[in-house]
Design a protein that fits this description.
Blueprint lengths: L1 E3 L9 H4 L3 H8 L3 E5 L4 E3 L7 E6 L2 E6 L5 E7 L4 E3 L1 H4 L4 E5 L3 E6 L1 H10 L1 H27 L2 H12 L10 E3 L2 H8 L3 H13 L3 E4 L2 E4 L2 H8 L9 H5 L5 H4 L4 E5 L5 E4 L1 H7 L20 H13 L5 E2 L6 E4 L5 E13 L2 E10 L6
Antiparallel strand pairs: 1-2, 2-9, 3-8, 4-7, 4-9, 5-6, 5-8, 10-12, 11-12, 13-14, 13-18, 15-17, 16-17, 17-18
Length: 356
């Protein structure tokens, strides 16, 4: 269902917050609002290029075969850029609603022109495309090589990102819908959920799944299939207990700005679910106005002696949460060699707290 779009409602969403006000205004001035119920297709793979921003709800990217089988390649939450396969050049890719969704749909031609002409829009689109490809790579590798326990755990952890602040996220998800996401039949999912219930990982009742221990589920998801397939996912399995248990937010970043490690405190501070920051770009946590400066500083750090030091000379900075709000922080960075190359570990404290 489409209706006129209330432009102001989307202006502070994550993707839109990264682009200049003029570009945002151009996209929103004739955008339309699309509402989709759970299990409804938002953008079909066979549509002409379609693009927008998810304002409300939870959606998934998936590839569908002609016989009805589906493979979920990633999940979307409020603020994420939404596009179909013809936009990204991935022919079979579609977007479907997992809950009631509201999307601000842009004119595709105008969006593509802005992505060519405006640097910030182009960088935001590139980051969204990179995330899509990475999620698709992990999703397809998991389907091909993961056990059913690993596959179900992976999707439950990803879906739990809908409620990043909840102690025990509750997913409104029938076994059949979860089976569609996983790419299997309901009976197989039901059997796996029984195992997880017996292990104290989840509670299920009446079309709902309560995730009791997202951390343990994440460890189940990061099984043997990750070895030699995706070093970013594998890296998340090698985290030390000391970093995990730290009362401070700690993230690990490689020289390209890719987040390869984040402890639970970092996920909580920035409003993300356990394990969700790993594999994303550092720019996701940086105000757009200073993103270029941060990229240059990171490159300079890896090119020097990489000794431990305060970030920004010890000055206070601001970081961006998932909902687009900013939090004042200070930070200290130290690099170390890992199995995946040099990684800069950043210890982050909120203003007023002290790092120990």
């Amino acid at each position: 269902m489409a209706e006129s779009h209330p432009a102001g409602a989307a202006s502070e969403r994550a993707f839109l917050a990264r682009i200049p006000a003029d570009a945002r205004r151009l996209l929103l001035e004739d955008a339309r609002t699309i509402r989709a119920d759970a299990a409804e297709v938002i953008f079909a793979a066979t549509d002409q290029p379609r693009v927008g921003v998810l304002l409300v709800g939870r959606a998934r990217r998936y590839i569908a075969a002609g016989d009805g089988r589906q493979v979920t390649t990633g999940y979307l939450g409020p603020g994420d850029l939404v596009g179909n396969g013809t936009l990204f050049g991935i022919g079979l890719l579609a977007v479907g609603a997992l809950s009631t969704c509201v999307v601000a749909e842009f004119q595709a031609g105008r969006f593509v022109r802005l992505a060519h002409e405006d640097r910030s829009t182009r960088e935001a689109f590139t980051d969204a495309t990179t995330a899509l490809v990475r999620e698709g790579h992990v999703g397809l590798a998991l389907t091909a090589f993961g056990t059913m326990r690993e596959r179900v755990a992976h999707h439950l952890v990803a879906l739990a990102a809908d409620e990043p602040g909840a102690v025990a996220p509750v997913l409104t998800m029938t076994q059949q819908r979860l089976a569609d996401c996983v790419g299997t039949v309901r009976e197989v999912v039901a059997r796996t959920l029984r195992e997880f219930r017996a292990e104290g990982l989840v509670v299920t009742a009446g079309g709902r799944v309560e995730v009791l221990d997202a951390g343990r589920l994440a460890r189940v998801a990061a099984g043997r299939w990750t070895r030699g397939i995706d070093p970013l996912v594998a890296a998340s399995r090698t985290r030390t207990e000391g970093l995990d248990a730290s009362p401070h937010a700690i993230i690990g970043v490689d020289s390209s700005g890719l987040i390869v490690y984040a402890n639970a405190r970092a996920d909580s501070l920035f409003g993300w679910a356990v394990g969700e920051l790993v594999g994303s770009i550092l720019d996701r946590l940086v105000p757009p106005s200073v993103a270029d400066r941060h990229r240059r500083a990171l490159a300079a750090y890896f090119e020097t002696d990489r000794s431990p030091r305060p970030m920004a000379g010890g000055l206070e900075m601001h970081a961006v949460r998932r909902d687009g709000s900013e939090v004042p922080i200070t930070g200290r960075v130290a690099a170390t060699d890992t199995a995946f190359g040099q990684v800069a570990f950043v210890t982050i404290t909120e203003r007023g707290q002290s790092a120990t």
